[in-house]
Amino acid sequence: MILYLASFVSLLSFFGLILPRIGVILGIYFIIYNWRKNGIIIKKINMITVAFFGYFMLLTPTLMQSRLLHYDNFSHWALIVKHLLTQQALPDVNSAIIGFSSYPIGTSLWCYYFVNFVGFDDGVMIFAQFCLLMACLYAMIAVIRDKNKMLAFAVMFLVMTLFNYFNIAIRMNNLLVDYVLPMLTLASIASIFFYRKNMYLMAIMTICLTNVLGIVKNNSLFFVMIVLGYFLLTVVKYHDSHWTVVKKLLLMLSTMIVSMSSYLLWLWHVNQTFGHQLSKHEISVTAYHDIYEAKTPEIISSIVQKFCQHIMTLSTIPTQGILLINTLFIVTIFLIHIVSHQKTMLLKGLISVNIIITFYYIGMLLMFVFSMPSEEALALAGFDRYASSIVILGLGIYAFFAVRAIDQAFYEQDITLRTIRSFASIKKKYIYQYTSISLFFVSALLILSENNGMRYNLSTYPESVPYKISHIVGDHMMLTHKKYLIISADKTQVDNYFVQYVGKYYLYANNVDAKEDISQLNRMQFINMISKYDSILVIDEHYTFQDMSRKYLHRNIKKGMYSTTYLLKYVDNN
Question: pLDDT by residue (tens digit) across 396-452?
């Protein structure tokens, strides 16, 4: 948030330079202070510490070695980090290389903070976002009442590792924020729950986290409203003679207003900076009206039909996730009723999660109808990625309700009296132990599976378009206005503009085009095409381009970068 505010007053460079150094100094002070006070630096090691340390250390080397592959990294998420680093300022009307100028910059500033201190690299940016995700995961532990009881944590940790399966559409080895949204939401809910008896601290934490959440993505407002809804409910339920109705109303109103400040500030910035210049996926009534008007009733009907068919198909991962959430709630309710014969909040949790999912899906349908071009909407472009956010949120909410219900089902309710003998019988103790071990074992398998999946993606990187381009041109860090043409034989990647976006990112240039089909060009058309650009980049064996170059340019072209001057040197003489 400090970087966010600094970016509006042209102080991003100063705070980006000084904040990490302040952090290092405070870190050293913290270590020395604790060593002098307690004689030890490392706190008590338990299963939570071991599990998180293992999770972090297993995935960190993989993510640090990872390279960007997903389309949206190059169209925006990595590109905006490079822009922030090289320009040390927010995009403006002259920043033609940034197509999604209305996208908030929350996680981009977080990644900028890392690369500005450590150095610019794909792995550093990916690792930066992983650190944010791990912080959110660790915050979820605050909901567990007794952190020495392994069954509750085992359930929580299993759910955390299940997140990876439902995040498989994008994985953690990229900079997309669809996983960050639910994780920040869950961290916010956990903080509200943890500080529910301290109204002021709870309000401060809510303001901090919702302000960050509000600038992650345009649709983050939905998740902010969930957090604020839970905050309001917690304040209303709090009973203390000191907190009168008037004080509660003032606290709720002020918290809600300040919580929305970062989001409103961004909308103001976009309007002041870009005016009526529409950006891709901008939140705008005008943009929605234009896109909606372009759709016929038949197209809208087809979108709705395909949307309904997709959510009813059991083979889709989001649908599997929704079924799993409901199944887990029902099974947990049944098992706890058998064990303790107690009423729990699980049923309310089940109803709440389904209401949230329903509203989110309605919002997704409206997005496809109003804010997405017909071709993309008919293909339900990005459906699994968008839906994964709400599935992960639903699983996280289940974990919150489940660990509290499990704790209430324990034989000894006084935490201070719990020992290794605090069980109703030896049989139940064995069930507790074997269940905990089994859940940790499954969690370990899921983590290994995720790590192996990312390792496999890394092994296929040399076959990818990003590798082909970066291997030839490197990674330029100086913004240029030169004109480049990329020649590729991969028709699919050229037609969907992936080659063009990857070229813009690595060449760091405003004007980059890509072509695959040039077979219909005659000599003059071919020469004219070449002459429009400063350089030509050939990234694979494009036999048509090679043949035409030999025939018309008298050049033997292989993979590489060629200046137009070099290619056209002998044209006039022949």
Answer: 999 999 999 887 877 666 666 666 666 667 877 888 788 889 999 999 999 999 999
CB 232 within 8 A of CB 214: no
pLDDT band at 9 (very low <50, low <70, confident <90, very high): very high
Structure tokens at 496: 């969907």
* Band (297; pLDDT cuts 50, 70, 90): confident
Q: How far is CA 64 from CA 445, 455, 526, in A?
A: 21, 11, 43
What pLDDT, on the 0 to 100 scale, is given for residue 571?
79
List b or e across 368-395, with b for residues whose CB sees 16 or more CB atoms inside 10 angstroms: bbbbbebeebeebebbbbbbbbbbbbbb
Cβ neighbours, 10 Å, residue 460: 10
Task: Determine the 3-state secondary structure of 440 from DSSP.
Answer: helix
Within 39-149, where are the H helices?
A: 47-65, 71-72, 78-87, 106-118, 122-139
80: nearest Cα among 69, 93, 91: 91
**Residue 497: other Cβ atoms inside 10 A:** 16
Structure tokens that stand for 277 in this block: 């210049």
Sheet holding 560-563, edge to edge: 509-515, 480-487, 535-538, 560-563
Q: How far is CA 322 from CA 136, 313, 383, in A?
A: 22, 12, 14
DSSP state of 410: S
Q: Whats the size of the chain, residue-wise?
A: 574
Above 90 in pLDDT, residue 175?
yes
* pLDDT for position 278: 55
281 pLDDT exceeds 80?
no
DSSP for 528-550? HHHHT-SEEEE-S--HHHHHHII
Q: What is the DSSP letter of 553?
A: I
Instruction: Judge whether residue 256 has pLDDT over 90.
Output: yes
Q: End-to-end distance of the chain based on CA atoms, in angstroms?
A: 62
For the record, the structure tokens of 450 come out as 């995720």
The predicted pLDDT at position 271 comes to 87
Assess contact for 278 and 287: CB atoms under 8 A: yes
Token pair belonging to 333: 């309710």
At 495 the pLDDT is 92
Of 183, 158, 179, 188, the residue nearest 55 (C-alpha): 158
The pLDDT mean for the chain works out to: 89
CA angle 332, 196, 45 (to 5 degrees): 70
Q: How far is CA 193 from CA 145, 203, 209, 258, in A?
A: 11, 11, 14, 20
- Phi first, then psi, for residue 487 (nearest 5°) are -105, 120
